Amino acid sequence: MDKFEADDQLAKWQQAFVQATPKVDSAALIAQTQKSRAKLKLKGIIDSFLGVVVTVFCIYAMLFEAKNTYETIMFALLVPIPLGFGIWSYRLRRKLWQAETLDVNAMLNFKENQLKHQVHYWHVSFIGCVVLWCALLVVALFNIVMFKTYSLWLIQLGINGIIVLAVYVRYKKLKAQLAVALESIQAMR
Amino acid sequence: MKTDVQINTLLNEYAPLLARVAATYEINQALQDELVQEMSLAVWRAFESNDSSPDVAFRGDASIKTYIARIAHNKAVDHVIKEQNRKEVASSESIDYTQALSAHKSPDDSLDLMAALRKLTLKYRQVLALQLEGFNQSEIAQTLGLSEDAVAKRSSRARQQLASLME
Asked: Distance, in angstroms, between A28 CA and closest chain B CA?
């Protein structure tokens, strides 16, 4: 038997609750939702396309631009990254969508883990970016010393240095927010 | 998987439910509208997906309403977490509800009820909001991922607090 008693007070509150429903233009809401959905799908297609393009570029560079075995190996290592990242990113987004259909407690557990993994991911990404930048520095120094190709390699170091910095800033920001977010989640249980 | 027409029909039918859930979590009108949008998109994605797990299989209208309420509350909770991270004043937990309540004081019980609901802590607010939607104890337990005993306890506390806020 249901433990809730149907009483006058609850009935009155229920009536007031329904009367307090904010006005919603359902047609506009549905139209906006369809638009957002289309935008998300388009973004997904563009992300996938860019992943494929960058992968193809890495293959081209490996086959036709690499001047020695070392550079060939470097480009070969880069080949699976863009496409792999795109596939991983899609699967992560899908997991997030599925979590929205769980019960609230399970969703909070998922959110907690997600936030912790997010910080861990950016930390690992930062370390990875630093390692890759150092490898790029070695290749750049080799090319500058051997072939005097200053501008190409200095520009590459500059651009990739900005990326490393951006990843570092993102990692620090998420790390700072993590404690507050975990506290909020705990308060909701 | 549901067709676009079926999803449109569902959104049309349950838009008021989404609006009420958003209103219980967020006082700022613009953020409420944004939250309702996010809820609608989440509902669309959920019904569009091919691989819903068996435990969310639908068994008639009651299950669909529970399913949609679950998604709505999840998006609302997500919204609260994000807003608290952004440290905005309009965040539903940190806002000065005394001001909100006095600003909406009127003979109209419905405005006072919503303002009073937002003053409850989230775990009580969730249970009571679902109860006010007409869900039974079992459905609320299923939506929140709690035992029925826990739901009954929270409901009792929530009703006491709401009654004293509305005096």
From this structure: 10
Give this complex's ipTM: 0.79
* Buried-state track A91-127, b at ≥16 Cβ within 10 A, e below 16: eeeeeeebbbbbbbbebbbbbbebbeebbeebbeebe
Nearest to B122 among A3, A20, A188 (CB): A188
* pTM of the full structure: 0.76
For residues A2 and B66, the model is more confident at B66
Contacts 24+ apart (CB under 8 A), A21-28: A21/B16, A21/B19, A21/B20, A21/B23, A22/B19, A22/B20, A22/B22, A22/B23, A22/B32, A23/B19, A24/B15, A24/B16, A24/B18, A24/B19, A24/B36, A26/B11, A26/B12, A26/B15
pLDDT in tens, B65-90: 999 999 999 999 989 888 877 764 34
Chain position carrying tokens 């293959």: A59
pLDDT tens digits along B107-156: 455 558 988 999 999 999 999 999 999 999 999 999 999 999 999 999 99
Q: Give the nearest chain B residue to A174 (CA atoms).
A: B85
Residue B29 burial (CB count, 10 A): 12
**In angstroms, rounded to a whole number, what is the distance separating the alpha carbons of residues B55 and A102?**
10
Q: Which two tokens stand for residue B107?
A: 């003979």
Task: Find out whether B116 and B109 touch, Cβ atoms under 8 Å.
Answer: no
List, for residues A126-170, the tens digit of each pLDDT value: 999 999 999 999 989 998 998 888 898 999 999 999 999 999 999
Contacts of A97 in chain B (CB under 8 A): 42, 45-46, 49
Query: Is the torsion defined by CA of B63, B64, B67, B70 positive or negative?
Result: negative
